[in-house]
Design brief:
Blueprint: E1 11-15, H1 20-32, E2 36-41, E3 61-65, H2 71-81, E4 85-88, H3 102-123, E5 128-134, H4 157-176, E6 179-185, E7 188-189, H5 198-214, E8 222-224, E9 230-231, E10 234-235, H6 236-247, E11 256-257, E12 263-264, H7 265-275, E13 281-283, E14 290-293, E15 296-301, H8 319-325, H9 333-347
Parallel strand pairs: 1-2, 1-4, 2-3, 4-5, 5-6, 6-11, 7-10, 8-15
Antiparallel strand pairs: 9-12, 13-14, 14-15
Bound molecules: ligand G4F.
Ligand G4F binds next to helix 5.
């Protein structure tokens, strides 16, 4: 068949493709569409391609070097590819680090979004643009569950950068009539989660502790900060499906994706231990609180993991996404934990 513009496969640019969300998005689109996927990778002296190694031989998956800090690279990518979709999942996404590197966080998470929008405005004005938004933008919340009308009240440089990005996406949408949106996504996890995030830190360390217990070896306890923070955790796979639904509506509307349930970090720890049949108990309180099993300390508090300002509670109302997009999360909190701990036990 002769290729015409009409039957040419569409082109999707994904930034952050080596990360959790980017890699699941690439998997999802390679499976569900016949589109060509252009994964943007930042140059680094050591590359971590673990999350995408299964895609490297796929002829529809192409890797391109680019960097949100480099407007020329973004401009060149958009001018040369003229994508149909641009999904920006690259970010300095670790809230805890955003106090140490506030400028870089703002440059990537806010100014980087302007770099993408400018390139799209100039070279591909029909391209549909998605930017990763966060419940961290809501921060010090006024009410629960939070909905799409909740005010932006960030508590970290990261949250402030994402809130700024939300405003600039709206400005470009309204000024240039772009299909540009920023979903508002609550915490989402998976076996592919980065190791500094609390869920992965817990499942990976507990898998190691379990192995040490089985082999009667010495081990260091899991050390955490505020275990009373409450988060609305989902599986990242559910969210990439939701992002794609947002990108394919008639009008550029923004939605919350969440589970509608909230749990403390402490509950996450307890459920992880329970999933592998370790029945310990908590003793002490505040910075002296510890999780004990067979007279051994498995978990303890280390105040150095406390943040200068904490978001105490997040709980999202995903009712609008359900009503207008038909999006429904499929993977439960318990199944998420089971998948993460099973993966880490296997790979330890
Ligand atoms: O896993 P976390 O680092 O995720 P956080 O800060 O909620 O942010 C994640 O979700 C956001 C959406 O709401 C995303 F936008 C963002 O990019 C990221 O994916 O921390 C979760 C909670 C916090 O309250 C933190 O203070 O766990 C608490 N915590 C307690 N001890 C810890 C630790 N967090 C980490 N990372 N490490 C600890 O030792």
């Amino acid at each position: 068949m002769k290729m015409t513009m009409k039957n040419m496969p569409k082109k999707v640019v994904i930034t952050g493709v080596t990360g959790q969300d980017g890699s699941y998005m690439a998997d999802y689109l390679l499976e569900k569409t016949n589109y060509d996927i252009y994964g943007i990778i930042r140059r680094a002296s050591t590359n971590n391609h673990n999350n995408i190694k299964h895609l490297l031989n796929n002829s529809r998956f192409k890797i391109i070097t680019g960097d949100l800090a480099d407007s020329q690279s973004i401009d060149n990518i958009v001018r040369e590819i003229i994508p149909d979709y641009f999904i920006n999942l690259a970010a300095q996404s670790f809230v805890g680090a955003s106090w140490q590197i506030p400028e870089q966080t703002f440059d990537i998470d806010a100014v980087g979004v302007i770099r993408c929008l400018e390139a799209i405005r100039k070279h591909a004005p029909n391209c549909r643009f998605y930017n990763a938004g966060s419940s961290e933008e809501l921060g010090n919340v006024d009410y629960s569950p939070q909905d799409e009308n909740h005010p932006l009240k960030p508590r970290s440089p990261y949250g402030a950068a994402k809130a700024a990005a939300r405003h600039i996406v709206k400005v470009y949408r309204e000024s240039y009539n772009l299909f540009a949106i920023q979903g508002l996504l609550y915490n989402h996890e998976s076996p592919r989660r980065g190791e500094e995030f609390v869920t992965k830190k817990i499942t990976k360390k507990i898998a190691k502790i379990n192995k040490s217990l089985n082999y009667k070896e010495e081990f260091e306890p899991l050390e955490l900060g505020n275990i009373y923070a409450k988060r609305d955790w989902s599986h990242a796979k559910d969210f990439v499906r939701g992002i794609w639904m947002m990108l394919n509506q008639d009008k550029p509307m923004e939605y919350i994706l969440a589970s509608g349930k909230t749990h403390t970090v402490k509950e996450f720890i307890e459920k992880t231990f329970k999933a592998i049949d370790i029945q310990g108990s908590w003793i002490g309180d505040d910075i002296n609180e510890k999780f004990i099993y067979n007279n051994k300390i498995l978990v303890q508090i280390n105040p150095s993991f406390y943040r200068p300002a904490e978001v105490d509670l997040l709980l999202g109302d995903w009712g609008k996404a359900k009503k207008e997009l038909g999006w429904v999360p499929e993977i439960s909190f318990d199944n998420l934990i089971q998948e993460m701990i099973s993966f880490d036990m296997k790979n330890i």
